[in-house]
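As described in the Methods, two query proteins were run sequentially through the folding procedure within a single session, without resetting any intermediate state between them. The first query and its resulting structure tokens are shown here.
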Amino acid sequence: MMALSTHWMMDSQRSKEEELLAIGREMKRAIGSYYESSPGSLKTYPKELTDLLEDKRYLGMRRHLRKLYIDPMTNQTNWGIVPAPDGGIMGVYSTSTKQPINKNNFAVSEEEFRQAPTYQEWRFVHGLQNNVGTAAPRSVK
């Protein structure tokens, strides 16, 4: 019974890791879309994650993200935020302090995740190749 329980917990965590990777990539893509579609020549990052839901820099409705996702590792909406130099948000990460199971099978831009001691080090940051330990984090709810 204990072995079955342990196996189920590992499978559950692996599934959550896959979900975190998918959500993190989607949020990174949305942040990049917001940044790249900045009107004029000055590129800016969103000030809040909700800016990705409705980009108010335009008259018509423009969405970069359909909904704010729940962090699958914490089951909460309070993502860690990687601040941009302009004060906006250039990336997100889970606030979970758990150790990852996955040490392989990452995208090229996520290879540094292999050495990450916690999920907090899995940083999904627009414009950077190295996503681990990027910038001084802040947390948002």
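Immediately afterward, the second query was submitted; its sequence and tokens are:
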Amino acid sequence: MARTINAAGLALIKHFEGCRLTAYQDIAGIWTIGYGHTGGVTDGMVITQDQADLFLQEDLQGAAGAVDAAVEQTTTSDNQFAAMVSLCYNIGPRAFKSSTMLRQHRAGATATAANAFLMWSKSTIDGELHVVQGLLDRRQAERGLYLT
């Protein structure tokens, strides 16, 4: 049976994503709505809170499935799993699967894996890579949850 994110991880994602019921462009220029949902979002799109909750549930199933498959042979606590789902939800399954964080987790290097969350605190803005305080704050929270 596939694992699901725990309450601490869900609260972390909701806190850092925030919920916006009208489409907006994120810091990287990607059309986004609800709690960070990007699939099929267009300018002017408006959704209800129920739709935002449904999008989040569906999107988290994908992220949780990707993490579950990536760590199925590795002992992983509920908080470690939740922190990794938050990271995967934010950076995407492809980037997560090739991340240093995942490699270190699989190797059992918990402290190194935790610190590797912080590598994902940058975004491309106007063609240049910049540390984004909101991403750094999120990565620190994920790191903390991972270590709990």
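The chain has a mean pLDDT of 95. We note this only descriptively and draw no conclusion about the first query from it.
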